[in-house]
C-alpha cells in the first residue's frame, strides 16, 4: 500500500468523536514525567508524536503538544482522524491529517490513542495493538486509554514493540468513593475481565480493601489517603509503582503481567 492509498483508506472505523478541553490532562501529566516516555522522546532523532482519533475538536491534541514541549521543545505532533470532516488545518505548530491504525505512513516515537478502542469489539484489540506497534519508530511507545467525559477517571496501557508494558489507573481522588470506581474506564483489553478470578479484579478488590483501611488518613485529604493505600498494596506484595512526590493525581501503576487476563 502506497502513501496515497493510506491517506484515502485509513484502517479502522469512525468513533463518536466526543472530546473536551483538558479532558486528557491526567494522561498528559503522566506522559510528561514517566521515565520511559521521557527517555523515548529525548533520545529520538525525530521526536514525532501522533495523536490518533482526537475527535470532533482538536483541543486535546493541541494540549498534548503544549505539554510535551516542556520535555522536548522540538517535538512534532500530528493529529490523525479517520473521519475526513474532522481534519482541520494546521495550527500552533501542530499538523492534522486523515489516518487510522496505519498512522498515515508515519513512524512516530509515541502514539496516543484515547477513547478509540473502547468503541471497538474486544476481539479487535489485539490486531489494533499489533498494527500500531509495527508502525512505531525504534524505541517507540503506544498509549491506549479511556477516560470519562470530564477526565476525572482514566486508565491506559503503555505498549512497546513487544507488547503491553504496564497499566495505569489515574483519577481525581476527590471524585471517587473507592478505587474500583475506575473499573468502568478500564481499557477494552481489560474491562470485560473485571470478574472474580481474574488479576484485574483481584487488584481492584485489594485496592478497595486498602482504601477502606486507610480511612483514617482521609482527615488529611484523599490524596494522602491514596498514597497510604498504595503503600498498603506494596506492603502486601502488589507490584505498584511508587508515587512521585507532590503528585496531584491519584495514580496506580502496575506491570502488565500483574493484570494480564488469564
Short overview:
This protein has helices at residues 3-8, 25-33, 35-43, 59-68, 125-134, 188-191, 199-213, 222-235; strands spanning 48-52, 76-81, 94-98, 110-114, 141-147, 153-160, 163-171, 250-255.
Describe this structure as you would to a colleague.
This protein has one domain (3-172, 241-257): Rossmann fold. The chain is 29% helix and 19% strand. It contains eight helices and eight strands; from the N terminus they run αααβαβββαβββαααβ. An eight-stranded mixed beta sheet has the order 3-2-1-4-5-6-7-8, with helices on both faces. Helix 5 (125-134) links the parallel strand 4 and strand 5. Helix 2 (25-33) runs parallel beside helix 4 (59-68) and helix 7 packs across helix 8 (222-235). Residues 1-22 are annotated as: Disordered.
H-E string = HHHEHEEEHEEEHHHE
Molecular shape = globular
Name the helicity range.
25-40%
Report the CATH C-level class.
Answer: Alpha Beta
Strand order of the largest sheet: 3-2-1-4-5-6-7-8
Number of helices: 8
DSSP E strands, number: 8
Q: Could you tell me the strand content as a percent range?
A: 15-25%
Region (Disordered): 1-22
Biased composition (Polar residues): 10-21
Organism: Mycolicibacterium madagascariense
Protein name: Methylase
Amino acid at each position: 500500500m502506497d502513501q496515497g492509498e493510506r491517506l484515502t483508506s485509513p484502517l479502522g472505523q469512525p468513533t463518536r468523536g466526543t472530546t473536551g478541553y483538558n479532558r486528557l490532562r491526567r494522561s498528559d501529566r503522566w506522559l510528561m514525567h514517566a521515565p520511559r516516555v521521557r527517555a523515548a522522546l529525548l533520545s529520538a532523532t525525530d521526536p514525532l508524536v501522533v495523536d490518533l482519533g482526537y475527535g470532533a475538536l482538536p483541543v486535546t491534541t493541541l494540549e498534548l503538544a503544549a505539554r510535551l514541549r516542556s520535555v522536548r521543545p522540538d517535538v512534532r505532533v500530528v493529529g490523525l482522524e479517520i473521519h475526513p470532516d474532522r481534519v482541520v488545518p494546521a495550527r500552533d505548530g501542530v499538523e492534522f491529517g486523515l489516518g487510522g491504525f496505519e498512522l498515515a505512513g508515519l513512524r512516530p516515537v509515541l502514539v496516543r490513542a484515547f477513547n478509540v478502542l473502547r468503541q471497538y469489539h474486544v476481539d479487535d484489540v489485539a490486531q489494533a495493538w499489533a498494527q500500531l506497534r509495527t508502525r512505531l519508530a525504534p524505541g517507540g511507545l503506544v498509549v491506549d486509554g479511556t477516560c470519562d467525559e470530564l477526565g476525572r477517571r482514566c486508565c491506559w496501557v503503555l505498549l512497546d514493540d513487544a507488547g503491553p508494558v504496564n497499566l495505569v489507573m489515574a483519577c481525581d481522588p476527590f471524585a471517587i468513593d473507592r478505587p474500583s470506581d475506575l473499573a468502568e474506564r478500564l481499557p477494552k483489553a481489560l474491562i470485560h475481565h473485571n470478574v472474580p478470578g481474574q488479576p484485574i479484579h483481584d487488584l481492584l478488590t485489594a485496592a478497595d480493601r486498602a482504601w477502606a483501611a486507610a480511612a483514617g488518613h482521609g482527615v488529611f485529604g484523599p490524596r494522602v489517603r491514596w498514597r497510604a493505600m498504595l503503600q498498603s498494596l506494596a506492603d502486601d506484595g502488589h507490584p505498584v509503582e511508587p508515587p512521585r512526590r507532590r503528585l496531584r493525581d491519584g495514580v496506580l501503576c502496575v506491570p502488565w503481567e500483574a493484570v494480564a487476563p488469564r
